[in-house]
Amino acid sequence: MARSLANTVLKGIIGSHHRAATCRTLCQQGTIAYYSVSSDAGTHDDFKSTSKLADSDISLKDVVEKDVKENPVMIYMKGIPEAPACGFSSLAVRVLKAHGVPIASRNILEDQELKSGVKAFSHWPTFPQIFINGEFIGGSDIILNMHQSGELTEKTQGRHNLPHCPKG
Amino acid sequence: MGVSKEDVEGILTSAMKPTHLQVVDTSGGCGASFEIEIVSEQFEGKKLLERHRMVNAALAEQMKEIHALSIKKAVTPSKWNPIPKVQEE
């Protein structure tokens, strides 16, 4: 499992949302994608870092905890924000985009272990799964409900005052 | 084959004692995905996420086979406001 996990975190699709993605950053961030930038799909094998995590004790739980801690809005979804692979994931992304906040995502279709790990972490059986400010919010039904009730605006503009994406 | 609409209805009726329950098989009869509307006093005092978790928990076994579950409504009787059958213009 460690090797598979290492492979997961080593596939680096990183947008320029943060300052220059270093090799170490790629190792840490893995297949996390940021909606706010255009994605250059895929990193050539030559540029992928060698396995530094094969012997580490990083568990999927650690990966998820890190994801939700470091990203104010984190969605585990089918597909990617630019190309959702299911209607529920698509809906969740559209709702979040309407609030103009940067979205970090992982495509659970890419990794069965990640998929199982996230389900176990949140005790939630389906995808998409949305976390805001480290708190598990729920799936697309809940995020839509909160959007309609105004609760989502409170979450995204409330105590943490999330940075907003430039339009376009 | 998957879970049937009747299975889902039976389980939720037994677990949640709903005053209103509507289950729609959105997979064209394959039992792969369902839409649910459920009204129950058991939701009293529970936040939205918790209400959804209660429905998920009731269907935990079935979730192994169901691919998608859409909970359109999960509210207490006092919050239930059904859309009238005759649409008003």
UniProtKB/TrEMBL annotation, chain A:
Domain Glutaredoxin: start-end pairs: 73-137
One cellular-component annotation, GO: mitochondrion
Alphabetized UniProt keyword annotations: 2Fe-2S, Iron, Iron-sulfur, Metal-binding, Redox-active center
Key word Iron present: yes
Gene3D superfamilies: Glutaredoxin
Recorded superkingdom: Eukaryota
GO molecular function: 2 iron, 2 sulfur cluster binding; metal ion binding
Signal peptide: none
PROSITE patterns, sorted: GLUTAREDOXIN_2
Protein function: May only reduce GSH-thiol disulfides, but not protein disulfides.
Membership in a protein family: Belongs to the glutaredoxin family. CGFS subfamily.
Protein name in the entry: Monothiol glutaredoxin
Organism of derivation: Zostera marina (Eelgrass)
Lineage of origin: Eukaryota, Viridiplantae, Streptophyta, Embryophyta, Tracheophyta
TrEMBL record, chain B:
Superkingdom of the source species: Eukaryota
Residues that span the membrane, as ranges: none
GO-annotated molecular function: 2 iron, 2 sulfur cluster binding; iron-sulfur cluster binding
A Pfam entry, by short name: BolA
CC per GO annotation: cytosol; nucleus
Any one GO BP annotation for this protein: protein maturation
InterPro entries: BOL2 (IPR045115), BolA (IPR002634), BolA-like_sf (IPR036065)
Family recorded in the similarity comment: Belongs to the BolA/IbaG family.
Protein known as: Bola-like family protein
Organism field: Zostera marina
